Amino acid sequence: MKVWGQWTYLYRAVDKFGNTIDFYLSLTRNAKAAKRFLGKALNGLKDWETPRVINTDKAPTYGIAIAQLKAEGRCPDELVHRQVKYLNNVVEADHGKLKQLIKPVRGFKMLKTAYATIKGFKVIRALRKGQAAIFNLTRDIRGEARIVERAFGIGQSVLAEAVEMLAQNLQGQTA
């Protein structure tokens, strides 16, 4: 995609079910950018979510980045990196849907606005795929609006909402 007329690289991580884990925008496609992205994506995962296998395209930068992350202890040593042509089809399918949304935008002026727009697209896609259903406490459109508010840091926290809902339920039971 283009930002201010320059090609920018969009790194994406999805799980085996096609659910988005993370994304990263970079002006370069080198080992440093790949390491930053993979470190960011792996850092946000719980221990039980840590992947055993990572499938990537044939770019040699991923191998270098994974080796460096293993050496630093930020990536499990038993992690297998596979660079087979068709194994990253899940990522490419996710990329195709994103490109359909980005194409009408016709490029971005700043990296910051590109990131915010793509983040918005990802939140809406996660809602459509049912990826965020566990966080929708009320199971309605208000719950989805709260998820969007939290994704962009403009709403209450999940804990505050849960406490508020429990307090309302307790008041309703005692009345």
Protein model, in words:
Residues 2-131 form the DDE domain. Pfam families: DDE_Tnp_IS240. It comes from Pseudochrobactrum saccharolyticum. The protein is of the alpha+beta class. 49% of the residues lie in helices and 13% in strands. It has helices spanning 31-43, 60-72, 89-102, 111-128, 141-151, 158-174, and strands spanning 2-3, 6-7, 9-14, 20-26, 53-55, 80-82. The chain has a two-stranded antiparallel ribbon. It has a two-stranded antiparallel sheet with strand order 3-4. It folds into 2 domains: 2-131, Nucleotidyltransferase, domain 5, CATH 3.30.420.10; 133-175, no CATH class. 10% of the residues are buried. The N and C termini lie far apart (57 Å). It is built from 6 helices and 6 strands. Helix 1 crosses helix 2 (60-72) and helix 4 (111-128) runs antiparallel to helix 5 (141-151). Strand 1 (2-3) and strand 2 (6-7) form a beta hairpin.
Tag the structure with descriptive keywords.
175 residues, alpha+beta, Nucleotidyltransferase, domain 5, 2 domains, two-stranded antiparallel sheet, Transposase-like protein, Transpos_IS6, DNA recombination, IS_Transposase, DNA binding
